[in-house]
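Title: Comparing notes on inverse folding

I've been comparing how different people in this forum approach sequence design from structure. To keep things fair, I'm posting one structure and asking everyone to reply with a full sequence. Here's the target:
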């Protein structure tokens, strides 16, 4: 009789899909899931801004397997939630994130080495890497803008994470580093693919080849972050104000603009012009055209992305 050979880590990753559900409230607003390693709560100053907070402060928000899974899940749920128009991504405690939790390397190493076939080990390793990649690509592909609010440490996978965000603001004294080279691996979940667009090729190589620490001020100067500010409180206030401003815009146009900018990064000018022509051909006849929201008013929400789990 054949038995499942699914490894413990792979079981956790697959478990994420079965747990990915939303609860629809009587008012028609969706309630996000409850998470173990992060929180997702509306901003106190603007209900249409969602604050996603990495919440392992005792470990400087090191990213264990559960956190990776939940980062992917929360941004997938945002795509289904018509009430969310901007996301602020931040860290609880003294750091944004110290990067990959070392327990992940230990667990994956044991599981990989338990397989005697080199080819099968490689295939399994690739599936893990693709899972981690997908977790952060969920931030980039989220239909609403995502703004990173950085303080303390932003190391290794933290750089992968902020490179997937639309905007990033940091404290002057934050410590940022593309650290993978110092632990013997090639950065493989997004930094090397996204950072060159932000800072340029030579700066990207300097950061990746040396693994050196840079300050928040340096990160802003090289355009890895939009700006640096003296204190965590100032960064948070700036980010919340910025996110609320974006949330007041037409969600239809905001989502389309994000899609167009991201598309242009990966395609030729000709292809990108064709993409935006097709997009605007479908969007120009919209009810938001020519309107500005009045005080106390807002644009109509977008319908949530199709939730295939609700189909018969």
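Reply #1:
Here's my take.
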């Amino acid at each position: 009789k054949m038995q499942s050979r699914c490894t413990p880590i792979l079981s956790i990753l697959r478990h994420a899909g079965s747990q990915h559900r939303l609860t629809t409230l009587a008012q028609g607003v969706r309630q996000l899931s409850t998470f173990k390693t992060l929180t997702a709560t509306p901003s106190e100053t603007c209900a249409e801004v969602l604050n996603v907070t990495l919440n392992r402060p005792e470990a400087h928000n090191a990213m264990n397997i559960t956190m990776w899974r939940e980062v992917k899940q929360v941004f997938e749920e945002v795509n289904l939630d018509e009430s969310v128009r901007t996301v602020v991504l931040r860290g609880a405690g003294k750091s944004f994130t110290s990067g990959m939790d070392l327990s992940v390397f230990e667990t994956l190493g044991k599981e990989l080495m338990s397989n005697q076939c080199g080819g099968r080990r490689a295939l399994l390793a690739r599936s893990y890497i693709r899972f981690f990649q997908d977790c952060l690509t969920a931030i980039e592909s989220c239909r609403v803008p995502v703004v990173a609010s950085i303080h303390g440490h932003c190391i290794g996978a933290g750089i992968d994470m902020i490179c997937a965000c639309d905007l990033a603001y940091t404290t002057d004294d934050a410590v940022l580093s593309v650290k993978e080279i110092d632990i013997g691996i090639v950065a493989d979940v997004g930094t090397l693919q996204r950072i060159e667009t932000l800072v340029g090729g030579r700066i990207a190589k300097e950061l990746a080849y040396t693994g050196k620490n840079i300050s928040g001020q340096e990160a802003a100067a090289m355009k890895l972050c939009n700006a640096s500010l003296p204190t965590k409180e100032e960064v948070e206030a700036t980010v919340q104000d910025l996110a609320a401003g974006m949330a007041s815009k037409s969600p239809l146009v905001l989502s389309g603009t994000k899609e167009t900018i991201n598309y242009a990064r990966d395609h030729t000018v000709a292809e990108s012009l064709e993409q935006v022509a097709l997009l605007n051909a479908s969007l120009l006849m919209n009810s938001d055209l020519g309107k500005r929201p009045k005080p106390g008013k807002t644009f109509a929400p977008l319908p949530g992305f199709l939730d295939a789990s609700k189909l018969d």
